[in-house]
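Saturday, quiet lab. Running sequence design on the structure tokens for the scaffold JK sent over.
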């Protein structure tokens, strides 16, 4: 599936849901032993990141940015609170990603499995099917892993960026079918414990006679 990626108010949130990936699994093809070792380290790290919180900055392909706070609780749960006055809120409850815009009075829903969030919110980070790791790149203080839909049902890719020592997820960049990129940078990612379950619940606030979002 594809969603509009021009920088409108809603596309800032939809960028989290404009997935080039089919699911949470990572599959390796033609990787060197050193590259495979980095992918395995990243997978082990992500599986160990059961609860976390951080500030984030989201930047679109035109260089325009908005910030906020993110809460993660694996498996499956995340909350992106965009800074005022944006009115944007993105919540994954473990199966569905809900996108609310209080200023535009819109509410949309997408399967978690069809979003980039599924890559690192999965209960088990698999390395044998679903998504193909196409590139592992090293940087001065870390590395990145680029992946795409292994079944080639959708175009685009996601690049996860990590600090090496100590291991830390720094963010990710989603590239859509038209080559447009949306970047999420995490700032001060910290492990957490006991995050309130209500953080990961978002109900449609509109009257029941209003059309529901996509699922």
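Result came back. Writing it out in full:
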């Amino acid at each position: 599936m594809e969603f509009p990626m021009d920088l409108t108010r809603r596309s800032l949130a939809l960028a989290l849901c404009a997935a080039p990936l089919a699911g949470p699994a990572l599959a390796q093809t033609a990787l060197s032993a050193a590259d495979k070792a980095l992918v395995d380290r990243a997978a082990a790290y992500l599986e160990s990141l059961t609860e976390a919180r951080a500030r984030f900055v989201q930047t679109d392909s035109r260089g325009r940015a908005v910030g906020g706070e993110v809460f993660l609780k694996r498996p499956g749960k995340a909350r992106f609170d965009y800074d005022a006055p944006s009115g944007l809120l993105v919540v994954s409850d473990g199966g569905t990603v809900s996108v609310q815009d209080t200023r535009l009075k819109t509410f949309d829903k997408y399967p978690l499995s069809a979003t980039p969030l599924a890559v690192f919110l999965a209960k088990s980070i698999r390395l044998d099917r679903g998504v193909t790791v196409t590139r592992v790149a090293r940087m001065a203080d870390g590395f990145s892993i680029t992946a795409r839909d292994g079944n080639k049902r959708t175009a685009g890719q996601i690049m996860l960026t990590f600090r090496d020592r100590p291991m830390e997820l720094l963010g990710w960049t989603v590239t859509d079918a038209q080559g447009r990129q949306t970047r999420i940078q995490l700032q001060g990612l910290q492990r957490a414990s006991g995050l309130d379950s209500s953080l990961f619940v978002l109900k449609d606030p509109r009257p029941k006679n209003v059309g529901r979002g996509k699922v």
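Notes for JK: Residues 1-8, 19-24 have pLDDT under 50 and may be disordered. The chain has three helices and twelve strands. Ask whether to fix the surface positions before the next round.
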